[in-house]
Design a protein that fits this description.
single chain, 82 residues, Nuclear Transport Factor 2, Chain: A, four-stranded antiparallel beta sheet, 44% strand, globular
């Protein structure tokens, strides 16, 4: 993927890949530098939340990984290389 593609915000990047984007709601977002952690509530597929991690490259946000639980060290490039 060309790094210049992507989204203007981590919220848009996270919601773009969800099939139920119309139903999805951002519950929380934490941005640290060029990384972001979002908790998304998608009903009914993930009623307890769905974690999405994004990275900013060339000023645009991209989803890097997502799943049913949080990732430890998401904000530290030395721990997790995306």
């Amino acid at each position: 993927m060309d790094d210049r593609q992507g989204h203007a915000s981590p919220e848009l990047a996270a919601l773009a890949t969800l099939s139920q984007a119309a139903e999805a709601q951002v519950v929380s977002i934490e941005v640290r530098g060029d990384r972001a952690e979002l908790v998304i509530k998608t009903i009914p597929s993930h009623p307890d939340g769905y974690w999405v991690y994004c990275i900013r490259r060339h000023g645009r946000w991209h989803e890097t990984v997502s799943g049913n639980g949080p990732t430890i060290g998401w904000d530290e490039p030395r721990v997790i290389e995306w």
